[in-house]
Structure formats: C-alpha cells, structure tokens
Amino acid sequence: MIQDTIAAISTAVGEGGIAIIRISGPQAISGTDAIFRSKISLKDADTHTVHYGHIIDPASSEKVEEVLVTVMKGPRSFTAEDVVEINAHGGVIAVKKVLDVVLQLDGYRTAEPGEFTKRAFLNGRIDLMQAEAVIDLIRSKSDRAFSVARKQAEGVLSKRIKALRQTVIELLAHIEVNIDYPEHDVEAMTSAYIREQCELAIAEIDKLLKTANEGKILREGIMTAIVGRPNVGKSSLMNVLTQENKAIVTDIPGTTRDVIEQFVTLNGIPLRLLDTAGIRETSDVVEKIGVERSRDALQGADLILFVLNYNEPLVDDDRQLLEQLKDRSVIVIINKMDLPGRLELAEVEQYVSSDAIVRMSVLQESGLDILEATISEMFFEGQLEANDLTYVSNVRHIALLKRSKQSLVDAIEATHVGIPIDVIQIDARQAWESLGEILGDEAGDSLIDQIFSQFCLGK
C-alpha cells in the first residue's frame, strides 16, 4: 500500500498565466490544509471543488502566494488517490516558493518522472497500454497522432487486447480440462478446437499488426533525409516545408555543414526532416565531417528526398547516389523548374519510377501538394483511414503481438505433428502472457519503471 504523498510542478517551467502544483497521496488534503488559509477547511470541502485562499509559510505564518486550490478525493481522481492541485501565478519564483512550502510537510516528497501516471496504473485506474498512451498524447505532433493517442488512452485498443486474451484463456481452460480428465478427451476434437481458437486469435492479431506501420509513423514521424549535391535547394526546401528560416540559404556551395532536424506535418503526415550537408567530394575538413554525417543520416532515414537541379545535368555524384538509393524509399525532387531545363528526365527515370519524381520550384512554392500526395501514397496507400483510429503505434506492443502470434502458430503446428497436449499448453500460455505484458498484467517491475521514467516530471 502506498503510504507517502508526492508533489511536483505539472506545468512547463517559465512564465505563464498560471502554474500548477499537483499533489497525490493519503495526506494530500490534510497536509495542504495545514498550509492553506481560506474560508473553508479543505478537509470539509466537497470533492471536485475549487477554493480561493493563500499558501502560508508555517515557520513565519506569512503569506507566500495567492492561490486557487482544487480538491479531488479518491478514487475519483487521475491517480485514484486524494489529489490536490494548487494553481499559483505563473512564474519560476512564485511556483518554486509554493513547492518549497509544500515539500516541507511531513510525509511529502518530490514525485519521480511519471509517478502520478504510474500510481494511476498501480491503483488499477488504467492499464499499461493506456499509461503509455499518455506519453503519446503529450508528444503528439499532428491532429491525427493526437486522436490515435486519445483513443488508446480511453482504452479502445486495450479492449481489443483483452478480448484476444479471453479467446486464449478459453483455449487454456479447454486444454486444462483435457489434461485433468484425459479419459474424456477426444484427440481429434481437441486438436480441431485448438486450431480453431488459435486461428481466431491470429486473425485478430493480424488485423492489429496491419496498422502497425502507419501507427508507428503517426507516433514517431517519418525520418526524412533531404539529400543532394550542394546548392540544389535542399535548405530552401527545408525552410518552405517548415515555414521557417531554419536553414541558412546562400548561393555558396557547402553552406550547410551539419544535419539540421525539424518536425513538420504535411497534410496530417508527420515528418522528421533532416537537412543535410551537400554530398560531394571535398578537401574542406569541416565540410567533410558534414558530408559524413549526411551519409549517416541517409542510412537511418525512412524516406529520402533526393533534390536535383533542373538547370543542371546529372553528374557522376548524382548517378552514384541514385544507384545506391535504388532499393530505398526515395522521392526525387526536380527543383528549380522555373529555370531553363538542362536535366535529362529520361536518365533520372532509369533509376526511379516516374511516380517517385516530383517537379517543383521551391522558390515559387509550387509542387508542394504533389509532394504531399506522393508521400501519402508511398506510406499510407493514398490516405489514412478517417474513422478507424485503432492503430498499434508502440514498438513494444508490436513486438509482443508478434511474439504472441508466433506462439499460437507453434501451437497449431504442434497439433499437426501429434505433440502432447500439455506441451501445446505451454505455447498457448506464452501467447496469453505476451498479450498480458502489453496491458501490464505480466510486466515486471523493471519494465514498468523504465516506461514511466520516460514521462516528464509532474505527469
């Protein structure tokens, strides 16, 4: 049973209209009441009410800050414990003074990263999948990613995993009966039932895994490297896509010396853009380091935007890079279409499909809509589903679903070769445990600690 009470600043550090200190635990209300002066005692306050007053320094009895205090009595709170939120004036000094007074109370300590959400999980208010969705809500970079995370936080995906576990537990119960009462076992019927239940579960897992690629992209974004020779318009493209002057643009080749990263959303598609140094042979020591980093970014990219200059013919550096990118997800951008053409498009089409060639003028901001449509077609088969937001987006969940599926496949194969039913039970139980690990039912303490350590302080 949790005995201590935790407190932390829940709003971002810096100046703002208000700052919120969140407190959770058995002494949240009584402790805060000892340093709060108002017309009503917080102990007597109704749950989910807000009260005006002042935080008092118990050592000097002086007013520290004018505040609004919200009382939420467990289990009707985020952590399922008594929770108090102190709304103070936004500002580093004001909120720090209040937090210092709060942490002087007996039984209080500073919350660890993610500990409020962890308590919600430990107290049974949410499962581990819902807890992880809270991180995704905070980190969402697009409306659709936010919607997917919100659905997961509400438990939509958890319900499907629980239904899967129910299918497997029914299979396990049937196997247990046949192990305990072998005299009533009809081997042919048992094998058929095992295959039927396993195939039902596998079909549902396959439906979820089908969304994994799109879900992972929505969660993490498409790692997109903008590459090409110097002075073809890479940095200009970066600036147009981000609507910022993030990268320095000049007519001098080799201006970009390092990899610049920026997150953007194109028509609902999240991209982690990497503007790289122009790839070419150079004797400049600093530029050479930039070129090497560009090559590293190229290796780790999910998508490569290879920029060519319409006003220049292909050179050997272009041909070599195009040859290297033949088996990669690449879109060739023919930039500077507003200038006279000296580039042989037919030669470019020897390396990539015409569907993966986009003609643009970054200067005139033309062709952006075609680029967006091409990326969408490449990664989402044209469009994302508008209504079904049940995407599997977490790498941990994807791995466990695959592990569960393999265990079920092993169980089916075991029935065909006459393996004893008590051995088949091991495969079925492994599938059930893998699904339980997604929800947190079978997760160890070290995994739980690792997951919640990724949260920001105060969440």
UniProtKB/TrEMBL annotation:
Domain TrmE-type G residues, every copy: 221-380
Single Gene Ontology MF annotation: GTP binding
A GO cellular component annotation in the UniProt record: cytosol
Cofactor(s) the protein needs: K(+)
GO biological process terms on file: tRNA methylation; tRNA wobble uridine modification
Residues where GTP binds: 231-236, 250-256, 275-278
Pfam families on file: MMR_HSR1, MnmE_helical, TrmE_N
Binding annotation for (6S)-5-formyl-5,6,7,8-tetrahydrofolate: R22, E85, R125, K459
Alphabetically ordered keywords of this record: Cytoplasm, GTP-binding, Hydrolase, Magnesium, Metal-binding, Nucleotide-binding, Potassium, tRNA processing
This enzyme's EC code(s): 3.6.-.-
InterPro entries found in the cross-reference section: G_TrmE, GTP-bd, GTP-bd_TrmE_N, GTPase_MnmE, MnmE_dom2, MnmE_helical, P-loop_NTPase, Small_GTP-bd
Residues that coordinate or bind Mg(2+): S235, T256
Function: Exhibits a very high intrinsic GTPase hydrolysis rate. Involved in the addition of a carboxymethylaminomethyl (cmnm) group at the wobble position (U34) of certain tRNAs, forming tRNA-cmnm(5)s(2)U34.
Similarity field: Belongs to the TRAFAC class TrmE-Era-EngA-EngB-Septin-like GTPase superfamily. TrmE GTPase family.
HAMAP family: GTPase_MnmE (MF_00379)
Subunit structure: Homodimer. Heterotetramer of two MnmE and two MnmG subunits.
Protein name, per record: tRNA modification GTPase MnmE
Lineage: Bacteria, Bacillati, Bacillota, Bacilli, Bacillales
Gene for this chain: mnmE
